[in-house]
Amino acid sequence: MVIGVLAHPSRTVALTVAGLLAAALLPAASAVASAPLPTRPLSPSSVATDASSASAEPGAGGAEPPRTVSAWLPYWDQEGAYQDALRHADQLHTVSPFWYQAISAGRIDPHPGAGERRIIDGLHRAGAQVVPTVMETMKKGALAAILTDPAQRREHADALMRTVRTRDYDGLDLDYESIAATGESTYRAVRDGFTALATDLCARLHELRKQCVITVFPKTRTTGRIWDYEAIGRVADRMRIMAYNLHWSSGTPGPIADTAWYDDILTRATALVPAEKLEMGLPAYGWDWPADPAGKSKTGHVTWKTAEALRLKVGAPYQLDEVSGTPHFSYLDGKERREVWYQDARGVATHLPVLRRHGVRNTALWALNFEDPELWPVLARG
Fold this sequence. Notes:
By secondary structure, this protein is an alpha/beta fold. It has twelve helices and 15 strands. The protein has an eight-stranded parallel barrel, surrounded by four helices. Strand 1, helix 3 (78-87) and strand 2 form a beta-alpha-beta unit. Helix 11 packs parallel to helix 12 (375-381). The chain starts with 11 loop residues before the first helix and ends with a helix.
């Protein structure tokens, strides 16, 4: 960790705990097909049009209620997450299956189940756009080397475009996080390299009438500087801010997010990016920490579902921290005291007024089939 650059790690930690270990037990994915397939007509401006209509009252003038929610679909719970998406398709603008991983400049590998046509077709029939996520967990310096070398950067953009052509996708979501801890001596070059990649990729996607979504860390006084929000806001259709992990697995117990933090994030973001292009990432998960930081036991990842099941099992009372807008409880595991902080519908309801104050209507949920079912009517009310 570089102090002053990265105050909290991203969702990648959750992926490592809940996804990559599980994925090791799954059969290897088949190679991604390289032949291009027909694409659905999509205007890059459709995102802004969708967002600009969000202020309309449901049913006004015969118009359908606006779709203001995007959500990631985790490959390690693919069927459950898919069925969850179908149940709430009337609210979903975009579903981003967490399907691809960048390995090198020219190599994008599929996760298990990537590109399943039944899921793509089913989401399309339900009216949701399918914009798969490409993530990476490269070794230190590897992604930076790609971004700062024009030839490797072009090779990487070529690989991303080959990926989007393999299926009837509506675009790509780029979720590259290992550069967050870039040191002072190189961060400007890496930042500009990422901006150049995003600019090139978005232009190529728009030529195919596909969406370009860029996922970023929150920008605060100490985080997020590697992402040039203003430049990304100019080229991307949507910029997703991962507004979670204020307290994270390797840190001390505490809220996953809080209202003051959201206000700081959105004050900075809306000064640089049009509000209609922003998606505020909301957590549907949490962490189960040892209460004693000096303890030897590990922090566990929980979804809302598993956190609530645990709370009921141990008989802990429900508590909502009014300052942060985050539920939490503690319990004894043998002789060890543990502390769980997570997020639910009631907590999100306390955060949404902050989004409204900044004119941000669009949200992105991490992740489908993690969440409190009561979250959906809360999001519908905005």
